[in-house]
């Protein structure tokens, strides 16, 4: 008498949509074995997709066959699509079972695999369910993309929204009871005062049930300002679609938060009244204790006098008029010769023409493509029943905000590239007339210039300034000029005025 293991499988969607039943399969297999006088020595059942053989029950079955080698003759199942819905994997598994001395057989689609012609029918039985899977996947993807193009969110609602139906009974998302708290989270982060961790803890105490890692995905998700990310697919590029749902926050607030997350927005500085007499307030460091100097007026000798001074008790105090005059001399000192500024313009123009496709843009696009591929893979696993809707939603909510942020970064790079020569021209004009610009500028413009030229605080001591560094562009041009002077002294051949000095676009733009 032959000995057999019977195997039944059904996935959740098959059971609900097609009426497959584990009990029905088991009854048919036991009846068949009784009629054919086959001894059943094992029974395995599972609710799992047949896309791959990474199935819990099947792995146990395979382990049993390896330990009972030679004691099992048949592996019986109802149809070949119960065995596998992937032709390539099925052939590999059939070969593995054959080596174990086990013949796989579908009782409703019996095939004698020793007859070569029957392999044609086997190919059909195995390919048909795989084709069905692929067609269903394409139909689902097409349907989801149509809905997304119409501005509809097609998966589980993110935190702050809930799934609902509109007048046409179509699925939509609407703000939930958590929406005000989600808005509060964005507003607090945008202020740049509390850390993300502190905002998250406070939100949790106020009742917003969101995990520590998920708070980052929430803050990156464009769904909250009314947009839907449509991933790239085949020849279609990634797009940001205006959603039909109600936004919880404004677009401006969303991008303020992105700046905070990217470190572009610093914590607000203490407020003080701007004074024309104190343009360097906030940019000076105490030479005694290292703390920032402030400034204030002082009455005496029949008039009002302004001073920069320390508040740390070290009694550092200098006349503002004296410091301001010395600063204009400092600007004159760092003024660059016109010929070197012209050299910088030529070098930047040469760099622009040689680097139309920037490496950084390619790197960003590569990251976008990676994230899109991850979402696509998760979507396929969802369709195959190997991921739950909640797991798919978590993966999707993780990567969609990152994709939107990367798209914004890529667009920024493209815009900077397009405007590079304009930035260079403006920077060159500013550097040629730096002292005149500063002297004629309003107080806000003066302070912007100071902050742009000196990324770190200045130290005033003994009637002169000292600082550790200046703006990268100025430093690069000065190095370029020094190299040119050295070449001139050595009487080296002309190089056309082009330098290998690489200057970041952001540093040009900052001036």
UniProtKB/TrEMBL annotation:
Keywords: Coiled coil, DNA integration, DNA recombination, DNA-binding. GO terms for biological process: DNA integration. Residues 158-267 form the Recombinase domain. GO terms for molecular function: DNA binding; DNA strand exchange activity. It comes from Dinghuibacter silviterrae. This is DNA invertase Pin-like site-specific DNA recombinase. Pfam families: Recombinase (PF07508), Resolvase (PF00239), Zn_ribbon_recom (PF13408). The active site is at residue 11. The lineage of its organism: Bacteria, Pseudomonadati, Bacteroidota, Chitinophagia, Chitinophagales.
């Amino acid at each position: 008498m032959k000995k057999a293991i019977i195997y039944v499988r059904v996935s959740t969607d098959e059971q609900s949509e097609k009426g497959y039943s584990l009990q029905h399969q088991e009854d048919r297999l036991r009846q068949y074995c009784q009629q054919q006088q086959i001894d059943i020595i094992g029974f395995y059942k599972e609710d799992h997709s047949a896309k791959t053989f990474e199935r819990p029950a099947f792995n146990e079955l395979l382990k049993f066959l390896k330990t009972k080698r030679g004691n099992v003759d048949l592996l019986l199942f109802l149809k070949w699509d119960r065995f596998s819905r992937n032709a390539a994997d099925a052939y590999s598994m059939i070969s593995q079972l054959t080596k174990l001395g086990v013949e796989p057989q579908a009782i409703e689609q019996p095939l004698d695999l020793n007859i070569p012609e029957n392999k044609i029918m086997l190919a059909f039985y195995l390919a048909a369910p795989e084709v069905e899977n692929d067609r269903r996947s394409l139909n689902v993807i097409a349907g989801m993309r149509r809905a997304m193009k119409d501005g509809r969110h097609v998966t589980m609602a993110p935190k702050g929204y809930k799934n609902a139906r509109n007048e046409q009974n179509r699925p939509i998302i609407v703000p939930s009871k958590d929406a005000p708290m989600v808005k509060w989270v964005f507003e607090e982060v945008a202020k740049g005062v509390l850390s993300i961790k502190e905002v998250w803890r406070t939100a949790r105490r106020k009742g917003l049930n969101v995990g520590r890692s998920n708070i980052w995905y929430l803050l990156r998700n464009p769904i909250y300002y009314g947009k839907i990310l449509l991933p790239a697919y085949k020849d279609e590029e990634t797009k940001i679609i205006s959603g039909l749902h109600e936004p919880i926050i404004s677009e401006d607030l969303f991008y303020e938060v992105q700046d905070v997350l990217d470190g572009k927005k610093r914590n607000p500085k203490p407020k003080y009244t701007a004074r024309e007499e104190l343009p360097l307030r906030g940019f000076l460091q105490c030479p005694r204790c290292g703390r920032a100097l402030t400034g204030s007026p002082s009455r005496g000798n029949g008039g009002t006098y302004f001073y920069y001074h320390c508040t740390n008790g070290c009694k550092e105090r200098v006349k503002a008029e004296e410091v301001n005059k010395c600063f204009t001399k400092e600007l004159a000192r760092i003024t660059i010769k016109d010929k070197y500024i012209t050299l910088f313009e030529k070098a930047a123009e040469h760099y622009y023409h040689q680097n139309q496709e920037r490496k950084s843009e390619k790197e960003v696009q590569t990251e976008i493509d990676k994230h899109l591929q991850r979402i696509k893979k998760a979507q396929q696993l969802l369709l195959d029943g190997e991921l739950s809707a909640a797991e798919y939603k978590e993966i999707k909510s993780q990567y969609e905000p990152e994709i939107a942020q990367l798209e914004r970064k890529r667009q920024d790079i493209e815009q900077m590239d397009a405007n590079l020569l304009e930035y260079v021209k403006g920077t060159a004009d500013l550097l040629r007339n730096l002292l005149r610009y500063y002297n004629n500028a309003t107080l806000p413009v003066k302070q912007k210039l100071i902050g742009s030229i000196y990324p770190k605080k200045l130290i005033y001591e003994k009637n002169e300034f000292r600082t550790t560094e200046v703006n990268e562009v100025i430093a690069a041009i000065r190095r370029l000029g020094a190299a040119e002077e050295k070449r001139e002294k050595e009487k080296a051949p002309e190089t056309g005025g082009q330098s290998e000095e690489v200057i970041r676009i952001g540093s040009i733009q900052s001036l």
